Amino acid sequence: MFFKKFNIIKIFFALFALITSASASEGIGGIWKRDGGDGGKLEFFDCKGKLCARGVVPLPDGSPPPLIIRNASKIGENSWKGDLYNPEDGKIYGGRVVLNSPTKLTLTGCLMEFLCQSEGFVRISGAVSGKPSKPDENTKPNKSEASTEE
Predict the structure, then answer these.
(1) Cβ neighbours of residue 43 closer than 8 Å, sequence gap 6 or more
(2) Non-local CB neighbours of 64 within 8 Å, separated by 6+ positions
(3) For the domain that residue 24 is a member of, what is the CATH number?
(4) Tens of pLDDT along 123-136?
(5) What's the predicted TM-score (pTM) here?
(6) pLDDT tens by residue, 86-110
C-alpha cells in the first residue's frame, strides 16, 4: 500500500514539474525589441520543449533570419540557458535568458564565465500568457542550423 501511494505521489510531482516547466516557457513567447538599441527584434518560441529565438527581419540577401537562441534549457522559474549565435561574427556563445517581468527580459552572452555582455529587451507583441508563438513556415532553419536545433 505504501509503495502504491509513493508511486502516485511521484507521478503527481512529475506531472506538476512538466506543467510548470511548459507554462513558464509559454510566458516568454512572442516578439521582443532590443531596449534602447537599434531596434533589433527577436521572436521567442518553443522548439521541442526548449526555448529558441530568431531574428524577425530576413537577411539582406533575402534568406530567413538565423536562430539566435538554440535549444535553451530551463534552469530556473524564469530563466533559460543555451547557445547564442552572434550573426555579426558567426560564432556561438554560451548564454542565458532571464524573464524579468511580463514585458522585460535580459539576454546575456558569455565568451567565458566571467566575460559576459547583456542586453535588455521589451515585449512588443505576443501573449503575456498562453502558448508561445511558432516560427513562420518561411523562416525554417537552413541545413547548417537544423543540425544544432535537434
Answers:
(1) 30, 31, 32, 53, 54, 55, 56, 126, 133, 135
(2) 54, 58, 138, 139, 140, 141, 142
(3) 2.40.128.520
(4) 998 855 433 444 44
(5) 0.66
(6) 888 999 999 999 999 999 999 999 9
Q: Which three cell numbers stand for residue 24?
A: 513558464
Q: How far apart are CA 71 and CA 64, in angstroms?
A: 18
Tens digits of residue pLDDT in 5-20: 444 444 433 333 333 3
- Structurally, the chain folds into a number of domains equal to 1
Per-residue pLDDT at 21 exceeds 50: no
Check if the beta carbon of residue 46 is closer than 8 Å to that of residue 130: no
Q: Which residues pair with 31 in a beta bridge?
A: 43, 125
In sequence order, which residues have a C-beta less than 8 Å from that of residue 48 and are 6 or more positions away? 71, 150
The answer to whether residue 135 sits within a structural domain is: no
Tell me whether residue 148 is in a domain: no
User: CA angle, corner 143, sides to 141 and 149, nearest 5?
Assistant: 55
Residue 108's domain comprises 2-127
Position 141 in a domain: no
Could you tell me if residue 84 is inside a domain? yes
